[in-house]
Write a structure and sequence with these properties.
The complex is a heterodimer. Helix content of chain A is 32%, strand content 27%. Chain A is of the alpha+beta class. In chain A, the strands form two sheets. In chain A, strands 2-4-3-5 form a four-stranded mixed beta sheet. Chain A has a three-stranded antiparallel beta sheet with strand order 6-8-7, sandwiched between helices. In chain B, strand 3 and strand 4 form a beta hairpin. Classes of the chains: A alpha+beta, B alpha+beta.
């Protein structure tokens, strides 16, 4: 292991090296600031990705050996791991802030993929670092940029939240995973009469006002998901959703208030016309320990929203 | 107790009981599951013994500037040096038992209850040897290769025409600047990106990935598989985070395997739910 040696000694060489490291750190910070302000990549990131594109440095990938085997035999070459990060404050709207944060991270990851001459990014994972100021969150995406033999580098590389095995499986079925769609809505419901929760009644009854509010909110989020997906492809698979309905009691003189928020994220695909898929059913012995790729295990990819209502894998 | 990278006497005693050229009927130890064991054998390797390296390390103290994004070099160095010690001790144990490599390496950091600045680093994996004495499966400089891949992944990697060289890693401990009162008030109630936070996390991840890639280049690897990024704070002050990139550097085995003979894997649609 050749780890970087940091100059901590009191010799003049070490002092000089510390000054040089300090100056390099400041230059790097300035380049990051410039890049984030202008929606670009810092020069040193561009250089790293260009070297990976040209095969001058070892490729790096999140692929498992099984995925590497698929890549080798299907004419797919891993290039580099790419990421997109955006720390976003949702002071005005939690849900809209989350949607904006993920979109920004996706845009930045795509810029990295483009810089390394990729056709697609596969195995895109959502990550977050906890902490930081209140009402803000780290929105990070990272995955493996790949190049498909005989295809020219793409101006807009595909962003795929599925691993390479599923990516290839979809391609073989004529379906192209193309991106990540987000739908998010929030709203307040004012309950001046304090009756919406039905707590003044002994009877069984549907809570129609509250239910209607909640249903409408979910539908709006799904409608937004559909609109976002329509800009990229013609369908959505494997979505993760988070929904919360919170009650704020108003006390004696103020009305009760309900806050509903619903966010849903999914993998956008270009499915095209329905085609028959020729597959035999065969019994196999799975040699995997623990979670198996033969079952629909979402893994840790949706750990960002590990609260409730998980559906499918993303 | 031995000092530095030498093997303690009791460990040498234990190694004598394991399978080796001198003791072919010895007992192997491993933490393989049944499936892993069968697939490692299928790949042409035999387990030799569990290899362990550990290091209890006092992490020095460093405070980041309140309003400055910066790498915490004292902490970065500590995390590197302690991991290196644990890994090199494990590798040395593997070499002493005649292993060609170590698979399924788990590299863990544990906090000790009684001192917040003391961490324990443990590297543990199963030493394996090529059953037919093939000598080209060693790691860099003839030392045993190391890999965090499971037995199944090891078999699959060889099927894909690659062999593991070394577990490569990149670490960066970073202090994320706090926001000033005026900055916070200026953006209160708004939906807006906090660029100094974005910049800090981006930079720290980038440094960790660059360092991991450099390690792969140093061992002349073609690439890195199974790379993962971990974030963690080992009881440090708030706003100090370690980004740790780790994966297995691999090299093609074209000398032992004709690429055209790599089997075409069959993709399946699972009917499991």
């Amino acid at each position: 292991m050749a780890w970087p040696k940091f100059p901590f000694g009191g010799s003049s060489e070490d002092k000089e090296a510390r000054r040089a490291a300090e100056a390099a750190g400041q230059k790097r910070s300035a380049e990051w600031e410039q890049a984030l302000t202008h929606n670009a990549l810092p020069p040193f990131v561009e250089a790293r990705l260009a070297a990976a594109r040209d095969g001058l440095t070892p490729w790096t990938s999140t692929m498992t050996p099984a995925e590497l085997l698929i890549a080798v035999t299907r004419g797919v070459r891993p290039i580099a791991t790419v990421s997109g990060t955006c720390w976003y404050q949702y002071g005005r709207s939690w849900t809209e802030g989350h949607a904006a944060g993920w979109r920004s991270a996706q845009h930045r990851m795509r810029a990295e993929a483009k810089a390394c001459g990729a056709n697609a990014v596969v195995d895109v994972k959502m990550r977050t670092v906890r902490g930081g100021p209140a009402f803000s969150m780290d929105f990070t995406l990272f995955g493996t940029a790949i190049k498909i033999d005989r295809l020219a580098p793409s101006a807009e590389p595909i962003i795929s939240t599925v691993p390479l095995v599923e990516f290839v499986r979809l391609l073989q079925a004529g379906v192209v995973p193309v991106g990540l769609a987000v739908g998010a809505r929030y709203d307040w419901l004012i309950d001046a009469s304090k009756t919406y929760a039905g707590n003044w009644s002994w009877n069984n009854q549907p809570l129609s006002t509250l239910g209607g509010f909640w249903e409408s909110l979910r539908r709006q989020a799904h409608s937004e998901l559909r609109a976002d997906a329509a800009r990229q492809g013609d369908g959505v698979l494997a979505h993760t959703q988070l929904s919360q309905l919170l009650r704020q009691e108003g006390g004696d003189k103020a009305p009760d208030r309900y806050l509903g928020r619903h966010i849903v994220l999914g993998t956008v695909v270009q499915a095209g016309e329905a085609a028959s898929i020729a597959r035999d059913v065969r019994t196999v012995v799975d040699m995997c320990d623990g979670s198996s790729p033969l079952s629909a295990d979402p893994g840790d990819q949706d750990s960002v929203y590990g609260l409730n209502e998980h559906e499918g894998a993303i | 107790m031995a000092i530095g990278n030498t093997i303690p006497p009791h460990a040498l005693e234990r190694l004598k009981g394991l399978r080796s050229d001198n003791n072919p009927k010895g007992v192997f130890t491993s933490d393989f599951t049944v499936n892993e064991f069968l697939l490692v054998r299928k790949a042409g390797f035999e387990p030799v013994g569990l290899c362990v390296g550990s290091c209890i390390y006092h992490v020095g103290i460093q405070y980041g500037s309140w309003n400055k994004n910066q790498e915490m070099t004292v902490l970065s160095q500590a995390m590197y040096q302690a991991r290196e010690l644990a890994m090199s001790r494990m590798r040395e144990e593997a070499a002493d038992m005649g292993a060609d490599g170590v698979v399924g390496v788990r590299l863990e950091v544990k906090r000790l209850e009684w001192d917040a600045n003391v961490l324990e680093f443990v590297a543990i994996g199963t030493g394996v040897v090529h059953a037919k004495g093939h000598t080209t499966f060693k790691g860099p400089n003839g030392a045993p290769f190391t890999s965090d891949l499971s037995g199944q992944d090891f078999w699959t990697l060889l099927q894909a025409g690659y062999r593991p060289l070394e577990m490569v890693m990149g670490s960066c401990v970073y202090h994320v600047a706090h926001r000033g009162m005026l900055q916070s008030l200026g953006s209160a109630g708004q939906n807006v990106e906090l660029t100094n936070f974005s910049q800090a996390l981006y930079d720290a991840r980038e440094i960790a990935m660059e360092r991991m890639q450099q390690e792969a280049a140093d061992v002349k690897a073609e690439g890195v598989v199974g790379m993962n990024l971990h974030e963690g704070s080992h009881n440090w002050q708030p706003h100090v985070i370690e980004f740790f990139a780790v994966g297995t550097a691999v090299s093609p085995i074209s000398t032992e395997l004709d690429p055209s003979t790599i089997p075409d894997p069959q993709l399946v649609l699972s009917v499991n739910s």
